[in-house]
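The data are quoted verbatim for reference:
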Amino acid sequence: MHITPLSGSRREIGEAHGRAHAELISHSLEVYDRLFQDFVALDWAGARRTAERFLPMIERGFPAILEEMDGIARGAGLDFEDILTLNCRSEISLTQASGGCSAFALNRHGTQWLAQNWDWRTDQLHNVVALEINGLDAPALISIGEAGMVAKIGMNEHGIGVCLNAIRSRTCGEGLPIHVALRKILESADLDAAVAVASRDRVCSPAHFLIASAEGTAAGLEVHPGEPGRLTPEDGKVTHTNHFYARTATGQVEDFPRQDSRPRLARLDSLLRERLPAEETIGEAKLFEILSDHHGEPLSICRHLNPAQPPEERMETLFGVVMNLTQRRLTLRHGKPCESDESLTVQFGPEPERHDD
C-alpha cells in the first residue's frame, strides 16, 4: 500500500482525494448499499435521505469539512449526497451492524504508543486508503480509513493520535457524525482540543475514541450525544473493544455488544500485562504480535473468516496500525497483521519519512 498525498484548500484536498481513488470510492458505495439493505432495509436512495438529517449538525460543528466532501464528490464524479452518506454510514447502520476492533494506548519508558486492529466486512479490504493531508488551515495528518471518507484512524504532526471502536446502539442524537468527529480530532493541536470534540461538540452516535498525545497522556472517550464517559490510564494503559464500560456512558446509553467483545478486552489486558514486562524495551514488532493474537479464534483479536456466521455478519481484520506518537511515526499492516507482508511507515519530522515494504 502507498500513501496518497493531498494538499491545498479544502476543495483542492477533496478533489485530489476523489480523483486519486474514484474507483475505490465507487466500490465503497456498492459495499454500503449492500450493507444498508442487509441491516436496515434501506436502498441507497433511502440512505441518502437519512444522511440529510446530519447535514445541519456538520454545518454547526465543522462546516469547513463540507467543502472537502463536495470536492471528493467532484473529483470522483459523484453527487455530494453520495459522499455525505458514505461519511454518515455509522449513523445509518450501526443500530444493527457493529464492527470488531481491539485498541490500546500504552506509555512505556517515556514513549506513548497507540495501536489497534480494524475489523470489518471483507469486501472493504481493498477500499482501505492511507492519506497524508497537508491543509492550509490545519496540522498535517495521516488518516488510515475507507476511500471517500474524511478520516478514521491516524495521527497528526503534533503527535495527537486517535483510534476507533464501533459500538452497536440504537442511540442517535445531536452532534457530529463519528467519522467527521475523528477528522476534527486529527486536526487538534493538543489533547485538550481533541477531547473537546467529544465533550463540547459532541458525537451524535455512540463509539469509543482512544486519544493519546506525544506528551504521554491518553484518554478513552466513550462518546455519544451526552457527556462522554472517560477512561484514564492504569499503569500507563487504556484498552477497549466494542462495549461501553465507563459509568458515565453506561448510565446514559444502552449498547448491544457482540459476544466476543468482553473476552477480547480481557485477553488484550492479559497480553499487555504478561508479554510486555515493565523493564522490557518494546517496538512496533512487539505490539504487532499483540494484534496478531488468535486466542479464542475465530472471535479473536486477529480475526479471520468465520464461515459459521451468516454472510452479512462475517468480519475480518482489514488492517492493524501501531503509532509511536512520541516520534510521530505510524506503521500500517494492510490485511491481517499475522500474515501481512505489506507495511507502510510514515514519520513526521523536518522532512516526513516514508517506507513501503
